[in-house]
Design brief:
Length: 724
């Protein structure tokens, strides 16, 4: 096996750590480290031994993460200075992968994967505590260094480790996010392609050329393996450069060099063929050309990911040869579905809704009022604490609370909607719960997409009389061309118990992902609320839904808060109302303050009530809370469990909620409660089972798909393009 070396500059990283933490017991290790001079090679096995030694002495499980966070350019040697001199993150990663063996052992393997650039390292030595810490230093150091280069937070990469998930998993999440895998066969890191265009703060183009020449010379000097020499010999003449390697000649070298060079995967003829086909089918945009990476030349008879990969390689080789420049543009993630659809070109869009949503559509698209239609779709009748089952059942045939009989309502709104269908002539209909529209589309042979998180919900014993109604609803949903489930794929489908697809319907199902809010927020100065809750252990209690649902939830909360067991349980209550008058802080003695007043006086609070949280406040509150109390809403549960990885206590209002909370309970993502006794018991159990719950929630969060908006928009776009 060839020797595996790293840069000696990393030895100074350990020296720095020992000095900062004043670890006097490591005098012997310090002497060893100081014998290594910068610029020389350090045996990888010795490096792992040093790390294991330091870990044993300090007892710090997070040593590798702490070292990675501490790493500066000086510890990365010439490679760190080279990538710092680049102009963009994409250019920096190209140079990092090309010369990273100068820093850290063997070569990194690079490939494109969907919308990401994948960098991977194959293990060369047996796994040990030293190699685990070494991997942590490499990955955390790389991510932290990149953050400093671009001057702001980037979208955290996907990372895969070889070692099992450690007990200090949360420390990984702080620097690397939640998209982590453990126990793999390779060490991997994936960066989004859209981030490659990010500018580096202080590029040095002139210095970059000098450093690159020096890096090339070092690669060929002998600080690398013989494989590099063989690659150079095999490459000789292939790119117009002669081999510059100078070693003692052995006849065995000829065999290896010949083997390396006997297979030409992209020669001049094939490369030119691919390029001519790509360029010949280009589209022009301003001062550049856009090529389709999925393009097939006349020697390809079917589309495949392999073809796309070789097109990518052809373009990258041409860029490295200076023939073309590849420009990566960072696409903006749309805040909502409507905006995404508007980007699809000169298609005409019509919107059907009622109530507050109808008013919001008018405000959002003031120039398109003719395309915004008020359709009075029937909905359940509100009771005191949510929908009234009795009133809604009576309303089926009788007028109730100024609502016409449900049969009359359905007939009326279908007639109104049918007139618009006949007048406009749609190419595509997208329904979010409107079964009537789904039926109209079916009758007119219009492609329809039905977006839902319900099909045939599981019924509890007392509700079996609803079964005929569910069968009817499922039959109408099945008339859609495609059924788009706004959830992650099984086994991470939160609404699983609300689906229960028939065989016919299952063939039409696409799991597009949750319609999560993925818009990045420009952070501003922390509010008094954010400052007040810092370093506190609390639960986040959410009041959501319409007025009756919101009020009913609030009453249940207050009943629980008045129990003696809750007197020391800190909580933040979001009333989900844009009402500035709801601004209250309670201390343990029942004294009331405003939020700003409580912060100024440093009040030891027990309860905070806020009418409406800003996006920044909400993110801060949820990220810092111990758990969240929700009513079981699909959207809210997705946000809490998936986006923020927090366990829940679910207090259901609807049967839909019950099913989703029961699912979460079975998956050990949260707890179920219905009354004040159960709520108090659930809070107690939350602390007793917290470690088990958080482990399950983190696993769920890593597999959470929140790209429902983009994925749905892509499906819509493809359908419309096909129709054109």
């Amino acid at each position: 096996m060839k020797p595996l070396n790293i840069t000696n500059n990393l030895a100074s990283l350990l020296v720095k750590y020992i000095a900062i933490h004043e670890i006097e017991s490591q005098g012997a290790l310090l002497d060893k480290l100081k014998r290594h001079h910068a610029g020389e090679a350090l045996d990888y096995g010795l490096w792992c031994q040093y790390l294991a030694e330091l870990s044993h002495c300090t007892g710090r499980h997070t040593l590798g993460i702490e070292l990675g966070e501490l790493a500066e350019a000086e510890h990365g040697g010439i490679l760190a200075y080279l990538v710092s001199s680049c102009e963009t993150l994409g250019d920096a990663l190209v140079h990092f992968t090309r010369y990273q063996s100068l820093l850290y052992g063997d070569e990194a393997l690079v490939e494109s994967k969907a919308n990401n650039i994948l960098i991977r390292w194959q293990p060369e030595v047996a796994s040990s505590i030293g190699t685990q810490i070494s991997d942590e230093v490499l990955i955390v150091g790389l991510v932290c260094f990149i953050k400093r280069l671009v001057g702001h937070l980037i979208e955290l990469p996907k990372v895969g480790f070889i070692h099992p998930r450690p007990s200090y998993y949360s420390a990984y999440c702080e620097h690397l996010g939640n998209d982590l895998k453990f126990g793999g066969k390779e060490l991997t890191v994936e960066f989004p392609v859209k981030d490659l265009s990010l500018k580096i703060k202080n590029p040095e183009p002139a210095l970059k050329d000098i450093l690159q020449q020096q890096a090339e010379a070092l690669l060929l000097k002998g600080n690398e393996s013989n494989d590099r020499f063989y690659q150079e010999v095999g490459r000789s003449g292939r790119d117009g450069r002669a081999s510059q390697s100078l070693v003692i000649f052995q006849y065995a070298d000829l065999t290896t060099a010949k083997k390396v060079n006997e297979s030409t995967l992209i020669g001049i003829e094939l490369g030119l063929k691919r390029w001519n086909s790509l360029f010949g089918h280009r589209s022009n945009s301003h001062d550049s050309s856009v090529v389709n990476i999925a393009n097939m030349h006349d020697g390809i008879d079917r589309q495949s990911k392999t073809n796309e990969s070789w097109n990518w390689r052809t373009l990258l080789l041409m860029q490295r040869s200076g023939l073309i420049n590849i420009e990566f543009k960072c696409p903006e993630t749309p805040p909502q579905w409507n905006e995404k659809l508007k980007e699809m070109g000169d298609n005409e869009f019509h919107y059907f809704s009622k109530g507050d949503i109808y008013k919001k559509l008018l405000e959002k698209f003031p120039d398109e009022k003719e395309n915004i239609h008020e359709v009075l779709m029937p909905t359940p009748i509100d009771g005191k604490f949510g929908p009234s089952l009795t009133k809604s059942m009576l309303n089926f045939l009788l007028p109730v609370d100024e609502n016409k009989p449900l049969v009359t309502q359905i007939s009326s709104y279908l007639k109104d909607e049918a007139k618009l269908y006949n007048k406009i002539g749609f190419d595509l209909v997208i329904n979010d719960g409107d079964m009537g529209s789904n039926v109209l589309a079916k009758r007119r042979n219009i492609t329809s997409l039905f977006v839902t998180n319900q099909f045939k919900p599981k019924l509890w014993k007392s509700r079996m009389y609803f079964k005929p109604a569910l069968e009817f609803v499922a039959k109408q949903i099945s008339k859609a061309s495609k059924i788009l489930v706004a959830d992650s794929e099984p086994p991470f489908t939160m609404c699983e118990y609300n689906l229960n697809f028939t065989k016919e319907a299952r063939e039409k199902v696409i799991y597009v992902g949750h319609f999560a809010n993925v818009k990045k927020i420009e952070k501003t100065e922390k509010s008094d609320l954010e400052k007040l809750v810092s370093d506190s252990v609390y639960g986040y209690w959410m009041r959501t839904g319409n007025k009756s649902t919101n009020d009913g939830t609030g009453e249940r909360y207050e009943e629980a808060f008045h129990q003696s067991e809750m007197k020391n349980e800190k909580r933040i209550v979001s009333h989900a109302r844009n009402d500035s008058s709801i601004d209250r802080v309670l201390d343990k003695d029942g004294n009331e303050y405003s939020i700003s007043e409580a912060y100024e006086k440093k009040i030891d609070w027990i309860q905070i009530d806020k009418g409406f949280l800003s996006e920044q406040e909400k993110n801060t509150v949820v990220d810092c809370c111990k758990y969240s109390v929700v009513n079981g809403s699909h959207t809210v549960m997705g946000e809490i469990l998936g986006s923020h990885a927090k366990p829940i206590i679910g207090i259901p209002i609807y049967d839909e909620h019950t099913n989703q909370i029961e699912w979460a309970k079975e998956k050990k993502l949260g707890l179920f409660a219905q009354n004040r006794v159960q709520i108090v018991g659930a809070v107690k159990e939350m602390y007793e089972s917290y470690e088990e719950l958080t482990d399950s929630v983190r696993e769920f969060s890593r597999n959470f798909n929140g790209n429902g908006v983009n994925n749905t928009a892509k499906i819509v776009s493809e359908i419309l393009e096909d129709k054109k």
